[in-house]
Specification:
The chain has three helices and no strands. With 92 residues, the chain is an all-alpha fold. The longest helix has 31 residues. It is elongated, with a radius of gyration of 18 Å.
C-alpha cells in the first residue's frame, strides 16, 4: 500500500484505477525482491553463470524503471485528484 499524503481522500483510496496501480506496484516490488534474491544466490555459487547474472541485471533494471513509472503515476494522481474524487486541481 502506498503511503497517503495530506491531500489524498477516502474517495481516492477507493478508486479502482488507483487500487489496480497500487496492486501492480506491489507485484513489481515482489518480483524485484525475487530477482535480487536469485542474483545473490547465483553470485554465491562457486562458479557463477555470467549469462544468468547479465539477464538478472537486465531484469532488475527493467523492473526498477517500471516501479519508478508506477510510483510517478501514483504521485501524479495524488496531486490531481480533488477532495471530491473528481480529477482537477486541489486548492483554490
Amino acid at each position: 500500500m502506498v503511503r497517503r499524503g495530506r491531500g489524498e481522500t477516502e474517495t481516492m483510496q477507493q478508486d479502482p484505477f488507483i487500487q489496480s496501480t497500487e496492486a501492480r506496484l506491489a507485484a513489481l516490488r515482489h518480483q524485484m525482491r525475487s530477482a535480487e534474491r536469485t542474483t545473490r544466490l547465483e553470485q554465491s555459487r562457486a562458479v557463477p553463470d555470467l549469462a544468468t547474472l547479465q539477464q538478472l541485471a537486465a531484469d532488475r533494471r527493467h523492473l526498477s524503471e517500471e516501479i519508478q513509472r508506477y510510483e510517478g503515476i501514483l504521485r501524479t494522481l495524488a496531486r490531481t485528484v480533488s477532495p471530491f474524487g473528481a480529477p482537477g486541481r486541489r486548492g483554490g
